[in-house]
């Protein structure tokens, strides 16, 4: 396929000349926050249409996500999701699509959930943590190898291969939960529960485990890698123009492999951190679906890890609060999926208008423009 | 252990292959039309779910399979209007919008299903069959192939029509030109945006039909996320078939066989876990992709929005 993302949603530079700094900041804010606001407003309409009370729903989201101990849950959820978004940003910057995130996350989870109870019995706690984290990370990375190799060697469309690998990986993780990692003491298909004493210690005075510290440190290192090193520069050149990359001597197949492995590793690490810090065990047929959830936010953060952090925080509030609020309102938890999808749509539309404005063009595409002007111009044929 | 070679067993097996293949045939037909014109419809999963849900609800309320299928087609069509506006008219990123449409389709149908039928989980009865005279009296194939609902025959006729239209009509030529080289279509006086619009709307209708077929004819009920990746497999089938409808049908039936073989293996003494059976089609697809890695071909303009005069 020729480059399918010539209009990569997140990579369009904002205008730099002829504008005051303030209006630039305003425009950036509008372009990043308006999609979220519009999506929330539309979701209110959706709630009214299906006969639910939107005010009740969103006040419950706020109550569970921020008030009381909610903020601690929110920060707890940020630990895996920051790593997750870093994993997506790395490949998206190279204009590669890793859509196999669900399997990479679940395989990381299942490996940690399966092996860490055994590891804890044979080695000191810190060593067990280290080995578990490495295993989970490796599991996530390993699941990207085949799509990456096919893309690097034959240029096979990675969207398709990662999606197919995703379904296979989800199946394998379910098999592992039901098979070798099944908790022998119970009949429900789930792995052995890690005792709380053998999980990540919590930050004193809170219920937030130290996974958030690991996550922030790793994410900052990745940010420095992407923005302050020659690797980051080569990655950006590769992402913005494969032809230029060829001319300046960047090894594209190697770059594709590195990016996919890094992405899978970060997603696997995210899963391991959440498993060791919070979940403690894995049940069959559970798919948290975090990948699709953080997807719009890495674009809104313009594929920059630092600017993505506030969006991830926002999503974590929505997620922690939304799951409980859905229960209270008698809604399916997949309601959040609609909100996420709406953010994606509005983001793309607003980005389109922004680019048109920068280029000094009409906001309307030619076809639509004819249709609209045709209404007022009866003589002319649309 | 069941005896595999009884005639009833073979007949059930063939019927199972057809039941899982036809939704994929329909989805792949729609996807083929779109991809030939340069539109990558990654939201086909969402469109199929839309078609499945609204088809199911309509049949449940009216007891009419015909109206159910129509409602499914309409639901897919309505969703493709959104795709046409965003992807073709505005030229937004087709992958991002495709993912969004998949989430919208899955989210809305499961929220609606949860709030209306979540407690009762109703099922539909058997659809009326449309027996072909004489042939339906044959042993084995008679009860499996020639006693299918009318929708089965409609699907096959549609496949034939799409094949003829793509190959032998001016419209088909315009569609393929829009995917191969939109600039030359424009230069020759064709309208790229209009061509892609028609084709994408048709594709949505096909996806909706496929979803409705899955819910009404194959499964007899709706469950949230029941398509479980068929839409994505349709994209693979399309990429491997390169616009040749016979290949679309053949590879869809290979998929159907891999689904049915899983069920058979489970019924016989092999006792495979359900997880393996669910994975089987995806493993088959992955192996196909590895073997034919070099020959999966897509039109050069696929996924690239058309801007007149842009280089």
Automatic annotation (TrEMBL), chain A:
It is found in: Cell membrane. The chain crosses the membrane at residues 29-50, 70-91, 103-120, 126-146, 158-177, 208-226, 256-278, 290-315, 335-355. InterPro entries: ABC_transp_permease (IPR001851). Pfam families: BPD_transp_2. GO terms for cellular component: plasma membrane. It is a multi-pass membrane protein. Keywords: Cell membrane, Membrane, Transmembrane, Transmembrane helix. GO terms for molecular function: transmembrane transporter activity. This is Unannotated protein. It comes from freshwater metagenome.
From TrEMBL, chain B:
It is found in: Cell membrane. InterPro entries: ABC_transp_permease (IPR001851). The chain crosses the membrane at residues 6-26, 38-59, 65-88, 95-114, 145-166, 198-216, 222-240, 245-267, 279-298. One of its GO terms (cellular component) is plasma membrane. It is a multi-pass membrane protein. The keyword Transmembrane applies. This is Unannotated protein. The keyword Transmembrane applies. Keywords: Cell membrane, Membrane, Transmembrane, Transmembrane helix. Its main location: membrane. GO terms for molecular function: transmembrane transporter activity.
């Amino acid at each position: 396929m020729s480059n399918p993302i010539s209009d990569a949603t997140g990579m369009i530079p904002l205008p730099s000349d002829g504008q005051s700094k303030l209006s630039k900041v305003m425009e950036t804010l509008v372009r990043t926050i308006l999609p979220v606001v519009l999506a929330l407003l539309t979701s209110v309409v959706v709630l009214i249409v299906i006969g639910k009370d939107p005010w009740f729903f969103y006040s419950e989201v706020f109550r569970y996500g921020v008030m009381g101990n909610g903020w601690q849950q929110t920060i707890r959820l940020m630990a895996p999701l920051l790593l997750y978004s870093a994993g997506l940003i790395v490949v998206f910057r190279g204009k590669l699509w890793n859509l196999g995130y669900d399997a990479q996350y679940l395989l990381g989870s299942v490996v940690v959930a399966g092996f860490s109870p055994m590891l804890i019995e044979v080695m000191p706690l810190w060593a067990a943590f280290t080995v578990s984290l490495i295993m989970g990370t490796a599991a996530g990375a390993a699941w990207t190898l085949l799509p990456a190799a096919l893309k690097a060697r034959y240029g096979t469309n990675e969207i398709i291969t990662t999606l197919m690998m995703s379904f296979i990986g989800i199946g394998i993780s379910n098999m592992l939960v039901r098979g070798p990692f099944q908790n022998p003491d119970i009949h429900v298909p789930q792995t052995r529960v890690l005792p709380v004493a053998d999980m990540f210690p919590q930050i004193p005075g809170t219920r937030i485990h130290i996974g958030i510290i690991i996550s922030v440190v790793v994410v900052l290192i990745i940010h420095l890698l992407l923005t302050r090193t020659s690797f980051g520069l080569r990655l950006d050149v590769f992402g913005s123009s494969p032809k230029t990359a060829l001319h300046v001597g960047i090894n594209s197949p190697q770059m594709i492999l590195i990016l996919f492995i890094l992405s899978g590793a970060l997603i696997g690490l995210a899963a391991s951190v959440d498993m060791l810090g919070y979940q403690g065990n894995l049940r069959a047929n559970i798919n948290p679906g975090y990948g699709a959830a953080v997807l719009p936010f890495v674009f809104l953060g313009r594929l920059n890890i630092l600017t993505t952090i506030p969006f991830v925080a926002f999503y974590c509030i929505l997620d922690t609060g939304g799951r409980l609020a859905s229960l209270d309102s008698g809604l399916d938890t997949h309601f959040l999926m609609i909100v996420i999808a709406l953010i994606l749509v509005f983001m793309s539309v607003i980005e389109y208008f922004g680019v048109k404005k920068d280029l000094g063009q009409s906001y309307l595409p030619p076809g639509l423009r004819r249709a609209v002007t045709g209404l007022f111009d009866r003589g002319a044929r649309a | 252990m069941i005896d595999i070679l009884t005639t009833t067993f073979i007949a059930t097996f063939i019927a199972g292959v057809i039941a899982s293949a036809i939704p994929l045939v329909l989805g792949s037909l729609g996807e083929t039309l779109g991809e030939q014109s340069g539109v990558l419809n990654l939201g086909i999963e969402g469109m199929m779910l839309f078609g499945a849900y609204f088809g199911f609800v309509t049949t449940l309320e009216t007891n009419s399979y015909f109206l159910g299928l129509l409602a499914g087609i309409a639901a897919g069509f309505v969703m493709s209007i959104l795709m046409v506006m965003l992807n073709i008219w505005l030229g937004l990123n087709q992958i991002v919008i495709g993912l969004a449409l998949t989430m919208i389709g899955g989210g809305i149908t499961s929220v609606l299903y949860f709030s209306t039928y979540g407690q009762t989980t109703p099922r539909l009865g058997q659809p009326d069959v449309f027996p072909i005279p004489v042939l339906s009296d044959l042993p084995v194939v008679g009860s499996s192939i020639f006693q299918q609902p009318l929708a089965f025959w409609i699907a096959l006729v549609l496949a034939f029509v799409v094949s003829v239209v793509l190959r032998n009509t001016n419209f088909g030529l315009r569609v393929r030109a829009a995917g191969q080289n939109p600039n030359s279509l424009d230069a020759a006086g064709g309208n790229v945006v209009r061509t892609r619009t028609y084709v994408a709307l048709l594709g949505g209708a096909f996806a909706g039909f496929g979803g409705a077929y899955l819910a009404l004819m194959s499964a007899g009920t709706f469950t949230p996320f029941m398509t479980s990746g068929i839409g994505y497999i349709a994209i693979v089938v399309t990429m491997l078939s390169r616009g040749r409808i016979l290949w679309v049908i053949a590879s869809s039936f290979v998929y159907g066989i891999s689904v049915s073989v899983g069920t058979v293996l489970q019924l016989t003494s092999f006792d495979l876990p359900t997880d393996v059976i669910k994975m089987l089609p995806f493993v088959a697809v992955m192996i196909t992709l590895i073997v034919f890695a070099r020959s999966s071909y897509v039109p050069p303009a696929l996924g690239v929005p058309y801007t007149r005069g842009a280089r």
